[in-house]
Amino acid sequence: MIEQLKAEPIVKKQHKKLKQKLSNLSVKPSLAIIVTAKEPATLKFVAQKQRIGERLGVSIKTYLLTSEDTNTVIKNIEKLNKDPNIHGILVQLPLRYDLNTDAIINAVSYHKDVDGLSAFNLGVLAQKATGGTVKPILPAAILALKHFIDFYQIELTGKKVAILGHGRVIGLPSVLYVLGECSPSQVKIYNSLNEKIEGDVIISGLGSAHSFGIADLVSDEVTIIDFGTSLKDGKLVGDFKPPSSSGKTTSKKIRYTPTPGGTGPVTVYAVFENLLTLLSSNAYNNLHVREA
């Protein structure tokens, strides 16, 4: 049996809730997006954020820093950190190969870190995984993961969880979140796919087009949450190669997020959820959410 876990029903709930709460803010929310590369996939993701932001009533300001060096990008971010008219900052990943990703992401003030990827927020998430009580701004992809788990009732307690990739955006925060919140029986990280994948739930963030399929799965019942995105023959595809594209049938029970139409839209809305959280927190003493 094959089942797609689509974004649409989750996004509908996100949009309605966010639209109402953002409209109740005492100011018009604004989000700055830093773009350093002109890759087609990058520009598509930025355009998607712009469209959704406009629908939600958020002012989107895009800064194209496609030739600036690391220090110059950081100086621009520091100006935005101090700008009271900018409420959130997102550094669009991946950055150009010549830039220092860690230094640039960590330049974003945690008061404005809507992607939740700064060392501060990842540190709080790590503390939560070991029993800490401070609530972090979840990385947007992890907040999206939580939405899929909750909406589609994906059980992780006592399950074997496989995480494909160990990157800052998906792999590392997925490990921290799953260990801190989900009580799995096993978490195994795969940095390369030279063996079959042992997992009841697979969280993938390799960014390698159709890098695994049904033949690579050990369990007979598997849920795949695929954050990998790549362009293949001009089309956006995920890490998982679904049965329909391979032409094969299967006796396994497979639930998976399609690409496009899976994790991407939910992750974008999660950015705006984090923006709302930051605006509604004590970090902004002059702003408040009015009761509807």
The CATH level-2 architecture of the largest domain is identified as 3-Layer(aba) Sandwich
Low-confidence stretches: 283-292
So how many helices? Answer: 9
Mean pLDDT: 90
Instruction: Name the shape in a single word.
Output: globular
Q: Which series of helices and strands comes N to C?
A: EHEHEHEHHHEHEEEEEHEH
Helix content: 25-40%
**How much of the residues is beta strand, in percent?**
15-25%
Say which CATH homologous superfamily of the largest domain is assigned. NAD(P)-binding Rossmann-like Domain
Distance between the termini: 44 Å
Provide the structure class: alpha/beta
Q: Give the total of domains.
A: 2
| Rg computed from alpha carbons, rounded to a whole number of angstroms | 19 Å
Largest sheet: 6 strands, parallel
**Lateral arrangement of strands in the main beta sheet:** 1-11-8-7-5-6
- CATH class membership of the largest domain: Alpha Beta
Number of strands: 11
CATH topology of the largest domain: Rossmann fold
Please explain how this structure is put together.
The strands form three sheets. The chain has a six-stranded parallel β-sheet, with helices on one face. The protein has nine helices and eleven strands. Helix 2 packs across helix 9, helix 5 (119-129) runs parallel beside helix 7 (171-181) and helix 6 (140-151) packs across helix 9. It is of the alpha/beta class and 292 residues long. The chain is 37% helix and 17% strand. The longest helix has 17 residues, at 40-56. It folds into two domains: 23-112, Leucine Dehydrogenase, chain A, domain 1 (Rossmann fold, 3-Layer(aba) Sandwich), CATH 3.40.50.10860; 140-263, 3-Layer(aba) Sandwich (Rossmann fold), CATH 3.40.50.720. It has helices at residues 8-23, 40-56, 70-82, 101-106, 119-129, 140-151, 171-181, 243-246, 263-279; strands at residues 2-4, 30-35, 59-64, 88-91, 160-164, 186-190, 201-204, 221-226, 230-232, 235-237, 253-256. The radius of gyration is 19 Å and the shape is globular. The protein starts with a strand and ends in a 13-residue tail after the last helix. Mean pLDDT is 90; it is low at 283-292.
